[in-house]
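Long-time lurker, first post. I've been practising inverse folding by hand and with some scripts of my own, and I keep getting stuck on stretches where the structure tokens seem ambiguous. Below is the full token string for one chain I'm working on. Before anyone asks, I'm not after the true native sequence, just a reasonable design that respects the backbone. If someone could post their per-position residues I'd love to compare against what I wrote down in my notebook.
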């Protein structure tokens, strides 16, 4: 058995399970790394976690309660590493609903229906860490393509483990940006799953959901929506109308519909997801709180601010009761409530909520966590509204430092913060600095793989405003024209993202 390091990723509501897994691995001669135990006081969260992931041989991704943004960001960091360094091992805890979409196509240790402390669960966990079935699994120096070929040769094309290997290969292609080939492999997996398992089988449901994820990554949103609708319908027939996994699928479809502006349909699916969650998990379950927050975001986007506020307040109360006041999901609850209070003009109330989100986030995540950048950016917006330009600038600059370090200079969030900082610099009279921030935001959007960046029109418009104020009318008109091409407005309107 290896004595290498095992990184443990988990949501905060599953902290007890993470502690048990860490103790189990230690007793087996392994070296687990758990942030709540191994993070040194004062140590920078991003750098400490990144270093621990780099040092790990295996990364256990514990899936239990509804995935938080923090958990998903940590998992994405693990999955972005080169194949095999560390080897990601998703683990479905006994209370998990289903494998989340960002882990789709990966083989998971499924402990649902077991007690975590049972002999069977313990054996499955330990075997997953040291890798069982060596004849069908890759050695450390083999890539997933070779693993798929070996599984096909040893087990046969239509063996379930070969299909799983094909899904893993497709997931790897998708993670590396080879979206078209990932789609092709996922489509083949779906066809084989239908043939081998039948249409009404959970494996077929998973395969169809994976294909939808690949279509979404390609920007083929209409096809992805159609596929997810088929998955939801299939799951309703296969699992039953009140199955917890069906609630997850409704949430996934609602997320896609919300992201593509189909708010009415998104609202309908979020409401179904909330109802299924309340029936299957209970109204005070943290997963239901997350779905209520998502429903609140739809209501906010459609201008129903009081209804949105009601959903956010219920979600925040449930999260605080279930998770305690010092939890990332509670911080997000305060942030969501701050957003809708700002929309209704209650700037003092919004400021208070953002302050609480920042305070909680700094305590439980560390001051340089990406979530802190979001709340500091929103705090900057409120201070800007209150005409506290110096305070807003300070918040934007902190947010920019965090996003630049944690997400990279080309990330959309980094560009959004640059735009907001530029607006304050412009109002403070520093047109040169404002221009520099906007030019960097636009340049970063050009390097981002999302070619239809949603804020690019705004940034071109704002740069046009700055250039016009600086007297460079000709270049300003070029940016106004570009904003119109992208669907923006050429009227001067420096705006916050």
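-- Answer (accepted) --
I ran through it position by position. Result:
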């Amino acid at each position: 058995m290896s004595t290498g390091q095992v990184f443990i990723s988990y949501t905060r509501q599953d902290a007890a399970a993470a502690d048990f897994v860490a103790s189990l691995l230690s007793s087996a001669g392994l070296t687990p790394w758990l942030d709540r135990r191994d993070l040194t006081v004062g140590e920078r969260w991003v750098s400490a976690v990144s270093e621990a992931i780099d040092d790990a041989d295996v990364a256990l991704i514990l899936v239990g309660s509804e995935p938080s943004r923090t958990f998903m960001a940590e998992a994405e960091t693990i999955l972005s590493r080169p194949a095999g360094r560390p080897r990601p091992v998703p683990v479905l805890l006994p209370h998990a609903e289903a494998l989340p979409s960002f882990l789709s196509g990966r083989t998971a240790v499924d402990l649902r229906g077991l007690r975590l402390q049972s002999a069977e669960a313990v054996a499955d966990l330990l075997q997953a860490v040291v890798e069982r079935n060596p004849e069908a699994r890759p050695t450390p120096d083999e890539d997933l393509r070779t693993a798929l070929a070996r599984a096909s040769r040893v087990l046969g094309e239509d063996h379930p483990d070969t299909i799983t290997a094909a899904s893993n290969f497709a997931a790897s292609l998708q993670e590396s940006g080879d979206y078209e080939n990932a789609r092709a492999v996922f489509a083949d997996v779906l066809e084989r799953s239908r043939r081998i398992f039948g249409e009404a089988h959970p494996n077929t449901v998973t395969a169809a959901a994976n294909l939808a994820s690949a279509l979404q990554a390609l920007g083929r949103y209409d096809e992805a929506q159609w596929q997810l609708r088929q998955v939801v319908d299939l799951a309703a027939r296969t699992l039953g109308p009140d199955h917890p996994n069906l609630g997850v699928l409704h949430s996934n479809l609602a997320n896609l519909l919300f992201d593509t502006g189909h708010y009415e349909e998104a609202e309908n699916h979020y409401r179904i997801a909330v109802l299924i969650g309340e029936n299957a998990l209970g109204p005070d379950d943290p997963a239901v709180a997350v779905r209520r927050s998502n429903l609140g975001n739809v209501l906010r986007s459609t201008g129903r601010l009081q209804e949105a506020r009601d959903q956010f307040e219920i979600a925040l109360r449930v999260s605080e009761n279930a998770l305690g006041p010092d939890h990332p999901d509670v911080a997000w609850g305060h942030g969501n409530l701050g957003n809708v209070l700002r929309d209704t003009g209650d700037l003092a109330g919004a400021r208070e909520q953002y302050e609480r989100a920042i305070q909680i986030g700094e305590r439980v995540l560390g001051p340089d966590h990406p979530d802190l950048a979001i709340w500091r950016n929103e705090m900057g917006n409120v201070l800007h509204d209150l005409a506290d330009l110096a305070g807003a600038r300070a918040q934007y600059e902190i947010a920019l430092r965090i996003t630049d370090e944690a997400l990279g200079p080309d990330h959309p969030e980094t560009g959004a913060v640059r735009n907001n900082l530029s607006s304050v610099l412009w109002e403070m009279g520093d047109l040169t600095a404002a221009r520099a921030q906007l030019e960097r935001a636009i340049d970063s959007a050009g390097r981002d793989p999302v070619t239809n960046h949603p804020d690019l029109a705004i940034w071109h418009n704002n740069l046009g405003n700055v250039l016009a104020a600086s007297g460079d009318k000709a270049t300003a008109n070029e940016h106004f024209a570009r904003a119109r091409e992208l669907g923006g407005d050429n009227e001067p309107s420096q705006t916050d993202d």
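A couple of notes from the structure itself: The beta strands are 5-9, 31-33, 58-63, 87-92, 109-110. The radius of gyration is 24 Å. Happy to go over any region you disagree with.
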